[in-house]
Predict the structure.
Amino acid sequence: MRILKKILKWVGVLVLVSVVGLGLLAAHTWYFKPININWFFGRAMLQFALESPEMLSSIRILEPLGIDGHNAHLDDDSIEAGDRMFAQMVDARATLVKYDDEDLSEQNLLSKRVMLGLLDQLVAAEKFRFHNFPVNQLFGVQNGFPTFMEATHQVDDVQDAEYYVSRLSEVGRKFDQVLDGLRHREELGILPPQFVVTKVIAEMEAFVDTPAEEGILMTALMEKMEEAELPEAEQERIALEARAEIENTVYPAYQRLIDYFVYLDDHVSENNGAWSLPDGDELYEQAIKLFTTTDYSAEYIHNFGLEEVARIEGEILAILEAEGWDVSGGFTEAIEEMAERPEFYYSDSAEGRDQILADYKAIIEEVNGQLDPYFNLQPVAEVDVRRIPEFKEKTSPGAYYDRPAFDGSRPGVFYANLYDIKATPKYGMRTLAYHEAIPGHHFQIALMQEQEDLPFFRRMVPAVAYSEGWGLYAERLAWEMGLQEDPYDNIGRLQAELMRAVRLVVDTGIHYKRWTREEAIEYMKANTGMAESDVVAEIERYFVLPGQALAYKIGMTKILELREMAREELGDDFDIREFHDVILRDGGLPLTILEEIVVDWIAEKQA
């Protein structure tokens, strides 16, 4: 019975009827409109997941059922696979609208609205499916593949290790598919900025110049096999096979990408935003809708960002003045002086970097013990802190988060960038840990995954403005919880919010107002006090992912607005724990729907 319940919770009745052999019902459910909308949700999610063995390895919903063959394969990145994906989305939407609203429960109607909104956005985005850069300095396939193998591919037995080698053998096919897509983009006039070309060439050349036995693909495999305590003879056999695949398949695949980008280097010379691409203005409008789940215009967002930058800088200057600093020269001068104080930094050494990771873990442990007065719902999954792999940290952002496996076999991970020691001031560490781990991304995403009453797609796919908005809200909440009493820690919090406000200005500046890369870097550097290495990485990130940077501040602002509305309406009946239940229990929602749910909760409390 426990296995049957897990199947029902994870992939719906569709898999259950297949397992117990109800062939006709299973076939009808798979190929036609399922009788129950929850069966449809399960089918839709499963159909998309089955197209991505890498996603299946990440979420691990099939391994507990003894299904693990997908762990031997990499995704199909061909243009034809993209065609199939968009056709699936069109078919899914056509089926979804056949379910009458009046026949659905309140929760199922909410699920229908969420999925319909997501499908509408994705179907509309088909026009711009090639308006991206699959090989880029941040999350391109050339650095994403090694990271995936190191962080996601699990090795618990000999077969898992053989699957690892099998995946290495598929790199040539996958990279050639990416290369076909890059050439197609070139035909469409979609070329990356110059800095992307320059940086990915350097990154890939460094990767293939590393002897196979010293590279991350080999060292990660050896560590995984050793930790799994595989027989030494098997470790030696698999290591020889892996090294052969790296040298004969992986490195040549990288070299083909290098050769193409060396060719491309002669055909690009500028760093322009989305406006420079075919139909670029329309592309950016769609990106704003996708990442903010609002109808805000680029002009409105730009001006809102300018207002918030001025407000937050004023608050920081007030704190510095109260601490005895001379702020007569204005924000830029004061924050740069603060950034130069050596007492705010760790030693630029292996020991200093180890201490940073240890202190991050201590910060998370501290906040984890103080959640009860603010949260009824809390996740079970744990979170770890790790350094961003060194081979890619130079061009990576300051931090990022990877979700835990659904089967509990892998924790959530907060990855910290330790490349430039000046990018990790001590007064900014608490805020970063709260954002990426607890009560931020890990807390929200792990909790979302654990809401077993929700359809699986709602446990998997959060709206970006909601998820990133929650991360930024979590920074503020930790301060309200009394965890940043040191005035410099509070400056760190305000600097983090300031950076998100600056993002509103520079993202719209780049893609709407046609700022240059240098103009955007100069504005962010003058208005954040961030290390120059972080500023450059941030600005270059916005070039390759238009609109995503808008999600943080827009989402946080909406959550705070809803909280204040609830506090004003409910007065003494307002309970912060109940409010957080309402915000978190339904998974990641578009901001418009989230507002409706909070309004309904307020009305129920007042009834």
In short: Strands lie at 383-387, 399-402, 412-416. The mean pLDDT is 92. The CA atoms of residues 302 and 505 lie 5 Å apart. The longest strand covers residues 383-387.
